[in-house]
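Go through this chain for my students:
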Amino acid sequence: MTDQSAIFDEMNARSREVFRRVVEGYLDTGAPVGSRTLTRSMSEKVSAATVRNVMQDLEYLGLLGSPHISAGRVPTQLGLRMFVDGLLEIGDLAGDDRARIDETLGSNSDEVTTVLDRIGSALSGVTQGASLVLAPKHEAPVKHVEFVSLSQDRALVVLVFANGHVENRVFTPPPGQTPSSMREAANFVNAVAEGRTLSELGVAMTREISARRTEIDSLAAQLVESGIAVWENKGESIERLIVRGRGNLLTEDGHEEDLQRIRELFDDLERKRDIAEFLELAEEGEGVRIFIGSENKLFSLSGSSLVVSPYMNADRKIIGAVGVIGPTRLNYGRIVPIVDYTAQLVGRLVSDRA
């Protein structure tokens, strides 16, 4: 049974209180919560046997589990989800947490990515988790593009923007490229590039390739299409995923198997294979979202939770995201306002420097 409202309807006031106290106890200590502990904190005087019966009912509903035969109970993934959606009390952002994040802004002369690095480090330090910051795309108009062959399977695209910003990006070209085909591809791109941002250029080139395919040879067309793929972030180069605080998870007390899963998670992140999916998570709606364990395919290997929020530019367009990864027993009530505030701060920062 997975419908939350139906499960909640089956619970009376006592079972809801037992459920809430088990989850809060687990989030606070990370340890199973036993019936004797609960009897000392319940709002009504009940016996340990009564509490055990309620816990068994909650286990039957799929909300609690028993890690050991004689131990107390811990919330299941379903239980955590129901707690987060219906019972979680979100606290106010603490003044110390706000101050530590605000301190990272630095001077207006700093590069945006430099500031985002500092914000990621501060977010990791404040939450004692691993922070993720997805930096925005560079959206200034393109002035000039050049392709340079580095080896048989590696090439460089040099992007010069109208504001003087220059980026060098390495990508894998289609097989069979020659210096002349790269020059022809660059000439083709530059003919339609000026005054357009990268996103606009991708759309324009797709249209031009379709209309003028006969005017360029097939190898040059492949190269241009490969370039579009890179620029539209089908690969790894547009958005930059900043990961800070990996050690906060790797030094957690836990079984070696759990630590190995967390290492695998970060190996995936560091290869940046899933940046697009990370942004898509944030783009599904405004505000902070919480993903618990296998709810999120990106982090299900680690059994971790992700608290993530998009940030927007001055036009209210989502251009990136910030988030925190931690164990499923995160202090969600504290982490949510921290992530929310950081996302709003980054949005203002990017808008002011656009």
